[in-house]
Amino acid sequence: MSYSVGQVAAFAGVTVRTLHHYDEIGLLLPGARNHAGHRRYDEDDLDRLQQILFYRELGFPLDEVAALLDDPHTDPQEHLRRQHELLTGRIGRLQEMAAAVEHAMEARRMKVRLTPEEKFEVFGDFDPDAHAAEAEERWGGTDAYQESRRRTAAYTKEDWQRLKEEFDALHRKMADLLARGVPADSEAAMEVAEEHRRFIGGAYYECGHELHSGLGEMYVTDARFTATYEAIRPGLAVYMRDAMLANAVRHL
Predict the structure, then answer these.
(1) What is the H or E stretch that residue 33 is in?
(2) 193 and 244 in contact (C-beta within 8 Å)?
(3) Which backbone phi and psi does 33 adopt, to 5 degrees?
(4) pTM assigned to the model
(5) Mean pLDDT of all residues in the chain?
(6) Which string of DSSP letters, residue by residue, matches 96-112?
(7) Distance of alpha carbon 185 from alpha carbon 182, whole angstroms
(8) What is the pLDDT of residues 91-148, one digit of tens each?
(9) Are strands 3-4 and 39-41 parallel, antiparallel or unpaired?
(10) Burial (CB count <10 Å: 0-12, 13-18, 19+), residue 237
C-alpha cells in the first residue's frame, strides 16, 4: 500500500514542502511514483520518516540524521536503543527544567527570590511558603500587608539573611534582659521593644505603637509564635508582649 505526499504530510504532522525538501536532499526518497510522476510513499518510507522526525525533535541537523540512518552498520534495533537513551536523557533534563519552573513560580508567588536551599539556609525549618496563604487570608486586605509585599518583592538572599540576623539579635537582647530579671516595663526593656518596632517599620511595613502592641499580644495568643519565643528563652513570649505594651503606652 502506498500513500500520496499529502496523506503522509497529514499523518506525520509536517508540510508537503518539508517532504519535497527531504526528497530533494536525498534524506527521504519516495519508494515509487505514479504514472503522473507524483510521489508515493510505502510503509518503509513511513518508518524512515518517523526516524527522521524523532532525531529532528531532539535537535539533530539533517546531515547528521542522514548519516545515522544510512550507516550500514546500524540496524533498526540499534536505532531503538539509541532513541531510548536519548529520550531518557531528555526526560531527565525536562524534569529538572519543570522543577526549576515550579520553584520560580513559587518564588514569584511568595515574592521571595530564594532557591529552596537558600530558603532553608535563611529560615531554617520555618517554611515561609506554608504560612503565606494564612497570612494573606488574615491580613491580605490591610495596608501593612500590601506594603510588606511590595518591599520584600526585591529582597535577595543576602537581604533576608541580614534581616534575620538583626531580628535574632533583638530577640537575644530581650532574652538577656529577662534572664537578668529586668522588669518588662523598665526603660531598658521598652528601649529594646522600640528597636523591635523600628526594625519592623524599616524592613516590612509602617508599624505604629498600637499595631506593635497588637503583635505582642499575638506572640502570646498564637501557639506558634509562643513556641518560637519560648524556644529562645522560657517566658520570653509574655515578656516581649509586656515590654511592647509598656512601650506603646508610654508613647501613646
Answers:
(1) strand 32-33
(2) yes
(3) -135, 150
(4) 0.49
(5) 79
(6) HHHHHHHHHHHHHHHT-
(7) 9
(8) 666 666 566 555 555 555 555 455 555 554 544 544 444 444 444 455 445 666 577 7
(9) antiparallel
(10) buried
